[in-house]
Amino acid sequence: MTASDDPAAPRGADALRQAYDEWSEAAAGVLAKARKVSADELPDTAEALLSTTTGDGTVVRPLYTRKDEVAESGLPGQFPFVRGADPVRDVNVGWRVTERFGDEGGSAEEVNEQILDAAGNGTSGLWLKVDGGIGADGIATALRGVYLDLMPVTLDAGAEGIEAARAYLEARVAAPVAPQAAPSTIANVQSLGLSPYTAQFSGRATVDVDAATALAADAPEGVRTFRVDGTDFSQAGANNPQELGLSVAAAVAHVRDLVAAGRSRAEALGQITFGVSVDDDQFAGIAKLRALRTVWARVADVLGEPDAGAAVTHAVTDLAMLTQRDPWVNMLRSTVAAFGAGVGGADQVTVLGYDAALPAGERSSSASFSHRIARNTQLLLLEESNLGRVLDPAGGSWYVESLTADLAAAAWDVFTEVERRGGYQTALSDGWIGEQIAESLAARDLRVAHRTAPLTGVSEFPNLDEAARPAGTAQTVDLATATPKLARVARQFEALRDRADAARTRPSVLLLPLGSVAEHNGRTTFVANLLAAGGISAINPGPIEPDQIAGLTAENAATVAVLCGTAKRYASDGPSALAAARAAGVDRVLLAGPDREWPEATDRCDGSLRVGIDAVATLTELLDHLTDGGSVSA
């Protein structure tokens, strides 16, 4: 007899409660064993101890069960559009692989060659840089030979937006028509890309709002005028609820303008597309797109037009997450971001080049190579992993549904607070939006500095053998998608690396390993990686005795040393090693590990290198000492 056959076995809610209690007891036992205490001595429940809080305040629990079920959210293409905006999406195509053109300059003819080549190699959507590139008068040439009824186009024309929009609409009329008609789907929506409200925040060149609103009155079917670009907020440091809530607030401001100009509410809602940033947190990316559709559908419902509430989304891999150091790791970041965007139901996805954070002159690969890698990242997801063949594959997951609901609720709170303050324009002009994002950026910077938000190749496992970058270029990003308020996640550590590279000789610190390799290896490795994150080399002579310290100090001209060992070894050999280092003239002696491991009632080290410290502040202080204290001349 199985448990389910036993008439006395608990069922329904009772069975769920019993299963949860059994899991909780088992998890508490493991936690207690790891902490070397009894389960009764744990400070909280197993679920609470294993839960984590994301940077935007969302609590992620270790276990999701049937009690976390949410109401059915309908089918893709049906209100409230959580599961997708498109009811007739072609699963053989999936989302649109939208490639960006015009950033590298070149004539309209050259851009046209690039577009046609890309179209023959998997690109199914175009994002065209106009201002500072081909210009409005080059649009027709750049799009020559392109089936614009099949290939959705998004313009990025900045201050030339009105002229570019008119030029594009003329080119669209004259464009060849595909032999086989394209289905009328959201995937084929064209965007004139005008972003006056979000660009006002980020400082990008843009167009006059009234002129853009007037242009929208003449937009033909299948063409949307406004692109509410959430990347304007995310690049400045906005968290996910802020990006979504502020994007919706800006979109509502456009809707009000359009209604005031004589458009119906449904028509006004149909003039908006959304640009959404996605980073390497795949579940957050999935939930972010689902939450945006949820919130926008709710806005449409409040306006009395629920059927017009399908948000058209263009997901773009986050430029702020890309690093200048060890840029090859960006390929992994972008792959995860694209995965999240696709699974989350983005209508179009753009993967930026893996080297996009570097100035053009410092990129080791050609632009065509970077474009191909970005394009093929999506094609592998679509054509080998078949991610586009299932609509909303994460739907029904207790975790994803809960995360979506939490994020949508947080975004709605941001949106309603903006409305309470008088709307988007007022909240922007009185500085509230800037203040909120500045607070979010400061919190993110703190997490990065303490390495609770680790960056592979930058704050973790850095490569000191990389070629030095030109001085003064740490924040330089040539890519036109960069806004004046771009605050890259890695910028604090990369500024330290640039500073260390600018020294005549690389700054170095002497390690003083105590005991056997087994005793010190974990901490010498930790310290070496921590120092390398600031561009500082760790000199590891292997296990040492106190009487060797004077010679090692003189040989390496060391002014800073780090004692590395176990608490037991610190108790036996630490004081004598510290005394020897001081006698040898070492200015600062640091401890690898927490201060509590050092024996009491003895001379103490000058600081400690351990998990959880403000690594940026510590490394900055070390560089100050090493470059100004005589060990290294800058």
TrEMBL record:
Q: Which cofactor does it need?
A: adenosylcob(III)alamin
Which leading EC class covers this enzyme?
Answer: isomerase
- Kindly list the residue ranges recorded as spanning the membrane: none
Recite the UniProt keywords alphabetically.
Cobalamin, Cobalt, Isomerase
Which InterPro entries does the record match to this protein?
A: Cbl-dep_enz_cat, Cobalamin-bd_sf, MeMalonylCoA_mutase_a/b_cat, MeMalonylCoA_mutase_a/b_site
The chemistry this enzyme catalyses reads: (R)-methylmalonyl-CoA = succinyl-CoA
Q: Which Gene3D superfamilies match?
A: Cobalamin-binding domain, Methylmalonyl-CoA mutase
What family does the database annotate? Belongs to the methylmalonyl-CoA mutase family.
- Under what name is this protein listed? methylmalonyl-CoA mutase
Native organism is Gordonia sihwensis NBRC 108236
